[in-house]
């Protein structure tokens, strides 16, 4: 005849239950956390006294480097996928599904339409080594403005943010503001570091 072990009560049972709950909570937090994408370009933003925090979702960001190069980035991979579909169609880029998938994994891009296909064909380590020219934004070529318009079309609820390096020269920022103004894009946020 088999013996039936009595149910355990007391501290040993409480510790087991607590461990189970702890691992369930840990699993929940790991599964629901959205990790921030690594930024492609290093930009040290100037400080300000504003306490408004820029959201991590529904945000397209123009980054202006200290050399005056323009990058465009989107925080959420799902938004990047929708954006590259619209950009591919509007600019007739001819990107393959694999190239679009690669784009959706990149936080910021500093390559215009002419070099985008070859840039996306590189593996991740080679992309980090490439010296990118930036996306054109001047009176002769306003491609960056076209990227912003494509972002607005792909995500109507999205917001635009501009972050410039603390060493960025004024003409590069003024040129960007002028070109956005000509396209009637007046609503955007400036990203700064809180004091």
Describe the structure.
The N and C termini lie far apart (75 Å). By secondary structure, the protein is of the alpha/beta class. It is built from seven helices and seven strands. The mean pLDDT is 84. It is elongated. A five-stranded mixed β-sheet has the order 4-3-2-5-6. Helix 7 (170-182) links the parallel strand 5 and strand 6.
Could you tell me the mean pLDDT?
84
Secondary-structure class: alpha/beta
Can you tell me the residue ranges where pLDDT is under 50 for at least 5 consecutive residues?
Answer: none
In total, how many beta strands? Answer: 7
Number of helices: 7
Distance between the termini: 75 Å
H/E element sequence: HEEEHHEHHHEHEE
Please give the oligomerization state of what you see. Answer: single chain
Shape descriptor:
elongated
Largest beta sheet: strand ordering? 4-3-2-5-6
What is the C-alpha radius of gyration, as a whole number of Å?
23 Å
Major β-sheet profile: 5 strands, mixed
Q: State which percent range the strand residues make up.
A: 5-15%
Helix content: 40-55%
């Amino acid at each position: 005849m088999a013996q039936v072990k009595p149910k355990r009560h007391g501290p040993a049972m409480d510790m087991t239950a607590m461990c189970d709950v702890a691992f369930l909570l840990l699993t929940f937090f790991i599964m629901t956390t959205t990790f921030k994408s690594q930024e492609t370009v290093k930009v040290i933003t100037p400080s300000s006294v504003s306490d408004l925090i820029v959201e991590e979702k529904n945000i397209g960001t123009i980054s202006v480097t200290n050399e005056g190069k323009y990058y465009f980035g989107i925080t959420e991979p799902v938004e990047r996928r929708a954006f590259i579909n619209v950009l591919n169609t509007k600019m007739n880029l001819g990107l393959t599904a694999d190239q679009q998938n690669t784009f959706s994994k990149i936080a910021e891009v500093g390559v215009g339409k002419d070099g985008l296909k070859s840039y996306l064909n590189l593996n991740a380590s080679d992309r980090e080594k490439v010296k990118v020219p930036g996306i054109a934004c001047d009176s002769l070529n306003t491609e960056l403005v076209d990227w912003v318009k494509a972002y607005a079309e792909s995500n109507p609820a999205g917001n635009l943010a501009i972050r410039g390096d603390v060493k960025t020269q004024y003409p590069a920022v003024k040129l960007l503001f002028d070109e956005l103004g000509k396209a009637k894009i007046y609503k955007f946020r400036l990203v700064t570091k809180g004091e």
